[in-house]
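Intended use. Records like the one below are meant for learning the mapping from a protein sequence to its folded structure. Do not use them to infer anything beyond what is encoded.
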Amino acid sequence: MEIVEQKRFYHIARSGTLTIESKLFIGKEKTISILTSTSLGVITIVLLNTGGNG
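Structure written out for the chain above:
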């Protein structure tokens, strides 16, 4: 499993919620998105696995 490219996106909502999205591009067809949201000290991590066979 080789990471070809990694991108990170930051978004701050008016309510003060910070969302960080990290996208890992593995090979040509597999992408893993990691969404991290924090609001008022509460941290929620969502792992989205899209594409590929696994």
